[in-house]
Amino acid sequence: MSSLETARLRDALVAIVGAEGVLSSPADLSVYECDGYTLERAQPDIVVLPRSTREVAAVVRLAWDAGVPFVPRGAGTGLSGGCLPLEAKLMIGLSRMRQIRAIDVPNRRLVAEAGVVNAAVSRAVRSHGLQYVPDPSSQSACTIGGNIAENSGGPHTLKYGVTTNHLLGVELVLPDGAVVELGDAIEHTLGYDLTGVVCGAEGTVGIVTAATLRLEPMPAAVTTLLSIHETVADATAAVSDVIAAGIVPAALEMMDRTIVEAVEAAFGFGFPTDAGAVLIIEVDGPAAGLAALTAAVTEICRNHRARSVRVAADDAERAALWKSRKRAFGAVGRLAPNYCTQDGVVPRTRLPEILAEIECIGARHRLRIGNVFHAGDGNIHPILLYDERDEGEVARVIAAGREILAACVRLGGSVTGEHGIGVEKMQELGLIFGPDDLAVMRQVRAVFDPDSRANPGKIFPTSGGCVERRRPARQAAL
Ligand SMILES: Cc1cc2nc3c(=O)[nH]c(=O)nc-3n(C[C@H](O)[C@H](O)[C@H](O)COP(=O)(O)OP(=O)(O)OC[C@H]3O[C@@H](n4cnc5c(N)ncnc54)[C@H](O)[C@@H]3O)c2cc1C
User: Fold this and answer.
1) Is the CB of 138 under 6 A from ligand 1?
2) Domain range for residue 196?
3) What is the pLDDT of residue 339?
4) Same domain, 430 and 389
5) What's residue 467's pLDDT?
6) Taking Cα atoms as reference points, which of 111, 144, 100, 101 lies closest to residue 214?
7) What pLDDT is recorded for position 478?
8) In testing the pocket of ligand 1, which one of 94, 133, 152 has its CB within 8 Å of the most ligand atoms?
């Protein structure tokens, strides 16, 4: 946008949301130059922070009339550059839409605005013995709107399903400013599953302003185990065998030695830093059956040479264990100035192969790579450590990331388990889908957004565009 256009737009936005809801100074905008994927950066020209659906609709209508594309943003914890303002210089932040509009305990559902932080939903219903299950490790910051856009998972989605399985309906502002209600508060609705289309669309079909979420009862009893293995291969073989035995744990997470070292230094839980890998396994359900389940899981881990299998003694120890796991990414900051979290998925029986492959790729590119992931569903998160001041190393991180994703596809998996395509993986989408598949997806998107006004330049591969942008972060920031 020219500076004149920006100034005009700014005045019009101030008229809708007030001056405190419009940011345009370089210092303010610098906060919004990237999400959790920091290899690429771009500043918006304006950030607008509406407080209600009415204000979002008025802002979007204004953008529509002015021919200005926009990018929605929640908390900016995304890990694939989804809210990077590349082709849309107007950013619409939902962080001030934080109301829980309704809690319906008997029907186990809740209506939350898009900017409500994930963890706040479970907090709001805990006293009723209910919870909102999807629990991304970023749940203390990420928003319901961002979760819906990314169809986010989390440690406990292995047994209970990801965001789409807990989403009953959405209030959506279409790219022309119209407000529609999709889905319903009841379990089964007629017609096309349009809520399903919005979930995982990464903001390319409009802005979610509120959502009706399904709540689940808290499990009657929970046991959390820590299984310590000498090698990653033993740990991943145990993962496969647990699931093959017909056991569906509530969560089944793995951390390798690199990550354990960082986590132990940060939180001092008492992990052995000489172990090859640790598994955190949680089983839940009626108290009566839990001892047998725990025994079965323990035996499988021991069959795979577990050095020890320890059961969390009480809620405090369980909470400390989960704190270590959920804050593992943050602890990685101790290991290197920068890191890039990759996200792929393989059939869980192929975990040993993909982890061996990741090790080879790291060695070939002279990179240190740690692994912390939702092992139970085969969702891998290799963490590539680097220093962004070393442009050669940045280039090697990008190349290694692409090789890891290609390996996931070769092993029968996919290029994202839960972090979405964003800008990071647009090129990789072609590894999974052919031109005809992509054409159908573009047509679906066009039904909602015929002029590509909502988060343009994301998800779909463009000829050459994303390759060109894949340059070192320091250059990209210039
Ligand atoms: C430490 C850490 C741990 C993480 N752990 C997990 C994990 O366990 N599981 C997992 O799935 N992810 C995880 N993530 C990734 C990230 O937290 C999720 O993708 C999350 O859902 C993003 O939410 P957000 O509010 O930060 O969205 P943002 O990053 O702000 O946006 C993400 C995408 O959603 C779009 N968007 C945001 N709000 C809306 C809206 N209201 N309407 C339409 N589109 C919108 C944006 O345009 C963008 O494309 C983790 C990230 C970090 C940093």
Assistant:
1) yes
2) 100-217
3) 95
4) yes
5) 39
6) 111
7) 27
8) 152
